[in-house]
Amino acid sequence: MLPSILNNLTLPIISSPLFAISYPELVVAQCKAGIVGSFPALNAREPDTLEDWIDRINTQLAVLRKETPHAIVGPYAVNQIIHASNTRAERDIRTCIDLQVPILITSLRPPERALIDAVHEYGGLVLHDVINLRHAKKAIDAGVDGLILVAAGAGGHAGTLSPFAFVAEVRKIFDGIVVLGGAIATGESIFAARALGADLAYVGTRFIASREANAKDAYKSALVEAQAGDIIYTDAFTGVHGNYVRQSILAAGLDPDALPESAGAKIDFSATEGMQIKAWRDIWGAGQGVGSVDDVDSVSEIVARLCTEYRGARERMLG
Ligand SMILES: Cc1cc2nc3c(=O)[nH]c(=O)nc-3n(C[C@H](O)[C@H](O)[C@H](O)COP(=O)(O)O)c2cc1C
């Protein structure tokens, strides 16, 4: 049984945190559409800005819930990258706990028990994202409420495991919340994620091509144009393997078929104007679900379409 904040959604989706793209406007639109919105804490360029963003989201969602008491308004999540180079992590986590952010999504290192206990104290949840079983086991041992399985084909720093293999292996050892991500961009895929044993789908790329996303028009149009075969998996840009749109690599004057190896470059979340930002600004991250992105729509239109597709899939399967 899912905790109540994840049980009462328009569709079982967490829209994934997107570096440099998910800002409060996108998050509030996602929650308003009845799904879980999210953003990475590092998108707020200063720790004080993070506090302002969370305050703003809390206020806007409270107003929505008051004005439309019968509408489904989803909760939101803040993503924390727990890595030695993210020197803000401790302060950002404290801000999230003080302001009672409903869901924390942790990445890279599993969260400490004290963090999980502090979030549980106000009724929040901690989900941790992983790309393999070894990391999943570490997060389970740490006591997280849920695992986000980032499978092959996902946008950003994707894994390489088939979702079929990954969900089955995790479900053998974990009966908590399982969220599946990677190239999920249609209602049929969301239904399939549930059929595999996941509780919710993690959807990123589909929302980059939304009107509310903080991405250039050219980026959004490139997603509409691209197919799965245009997604290049490389560690050349950040030192960690990720999926990027071929057209943006070409536009940067590089040959997508002859990219240099990362040469041991280390991922770094401290630099505000360094490789990280540049990689995500000029070289566009996206998952293999791009072939199902045919338009740039508003979040509410996207969610309405996903709902129709999801219901259609369910009817076909269950009659
Ligand atoms: C442009 C871009 C930026 C991303 N930034 C983050 C991030 O800051 N933190 C994070 O945990 N995941 C990040 N991700 C990964 C997503 O959270 C998620 O795993 C992925 O979008 C799911 O696959 P999909 O894009 O195929 O739907 C990013 C993905 C993309 C495409």
From TrEMBL:
Source domain of life:
Bacteria
Q: Name one GO molecular function term.
A: nitronate monooxygenase activity
- Can the keyword Flavoprotein be found in this entry's annotation? yes
* Family named by the database record: Belongs to the nitronate monooxygenase family. NMO class I subfamily.
Report the protein name in the record.
Nitronate monooxygenase
Q: Which UniProt keywords apply?
A: Flavoprotein, FMN, Monooxygenase, Oxidoreductase
Its source organism is Paraburkholderia dipogonis
Entry annotated with the keyword Membrane: no
Pfam families tied to this protein: NMO
Could you read off the lineage of the organism from its UniProt record? Bacteria, Pseudomonadati, Pseudomonadota, Betaproteobacteria, Burkholderiales
